[in-house]
Specification:
The chain is elongated. The longest helix has 26 residues, at 54-79. The chain is mainly alpha-helical. Strands 1-2 form a two-stranded antiparallel sheet. It folds into 2 domains: 3-79, Rna Polymerase Sigma Factor, Chain: A, CATH 1.10.1740; 84-187, Arc Repressor Mutant, subunit A (Orthogonal Bundle). The protein contains 10 helices and 2 strands. The chain has helices at residues 3-12, 14-23, 30-44, 54-79, 95-101, 105-122, 127-138, 143-150, 154-176, 181-187; strands at 84-86, 92-94. Strand 1 (84-86) and strand 2 form a beta hairpin.
C-alpha cells in the first residue's frame, strides 16, 4: 500500500467532499469541512485496510466530521443564548428584553413568576373550559369557529368562555392582590365583542 498515492487520491476527492457538505446544508463551511475531512484522512490513512474502499472510508470520515461540527454549532448557539429562560409552559423568554422593559431585576423575576402562575391557573380549569378560553383569549378565534371546532352550541361557547375568564380573574386577584387587577385584562384577554 503506497501512502503517498493514497494521500494524492484523498486530495483528488476534495470536490466530491465539498459537494457532499453543500448537499448536507453546510454551503458556507463546505470548503473548510472538506479540508478538515482531508486532514483527518491523511493523518489516519495508514490505518486503511483496503485501498479499494478509499471513497467509502473517506465518506465515513466526512459524516463523522459533519456530525462533530453540528454538535459544535449547537454548543456555540447554546453559549450565545445564556439570557434565555425556558418557562414551565415551554415558552422561552428573553431575560435581557424583559430586563429592559422592567425597572429592576426583582420585577423581572416577579414577571417570570407571574407567567408561571398564570400557566398553573390555566391548568386549574377543566379541559373544555381551558380549550375555549385559550382559543378565544390567546388565539383570538370567533365564537362561531370555536363552536364549530368543538361541536357545541355558540351560546355554550360564549358562556363557558365568560365563566372561565371570571374564574381566572378571581383566582389571579386572590394570588396577586387587588392591586394586580389592572394587569388582569392584559393577561386574561380584554373583553372582546361577541360575534
Amino acid at each position: 500500500m503506497d501512502i503517498i498515492k493514497l494521500r494524492n487520491e484523498i486530495y483528488c476527492r476534495r470536490d466530491m467532499l465539498i459537494r457532499y457538505f453543500v448537499r448536507k446544508g453546510m454551503r458556507d463551511e463546505a470548503e473548510d469541512m472538506a479540508g478538515r475531512t482531508m486532514i483527518k484522512a491523511v493523518e489516519s490513512v495508514a490505518g486503511l485496510q483496503d485501498e479499494d474502499k478509499l471513497e467509502n472510508w473517506l465518506m465515513r470520515i466526512a459524516v463523522n466530521e459533519r456530525n462533530l461540527r453540528l454538535r459544535e454549532m449547537a454548543q456555540e448557539e447554546e453559549r450565545m443564548r445564556p439570557h434565555f429562560a425556558r418557562m414551565e409552559s415551554g415558552e422561552e423568554i428573553d431575560l435581557v428584553e424583559e430586563a429592559a422593559a422592567e425597572k429592576t431585576l426583582e420585577e423581572v423575576f416577579q414577571s417570570i413568576e407571574r407567567s408561571r402562575n398564570v400557566t398553573r391557573l390555566l391548568y386549574t380549569l377543566p379541559p373544555l373550559e381551558r380549550a375555549i378560553f385559550l382559543m378565544r383569549a390567546y388565539e383570538g378565534r370567533k365564537y362561531r369557529e370555536i363552536a364549530e371546532d368543538l361541536k357545541i352550541n355558540i351560546n355554550t361557547a360564549k358562556s363557558i368562555y365568560s365563566r372561565s375568564r371570571r374564574k381566572l380573574l378571581k383566582n389571579y386577584k386572590e394570588i396577586f392582590g387587588e392591586e394586580a387587577r389592572h394587569e388582569c385584562a392584559g393577561i386574561f384577554g380584554k373583553r372582546v365583542r361577541h360575534e
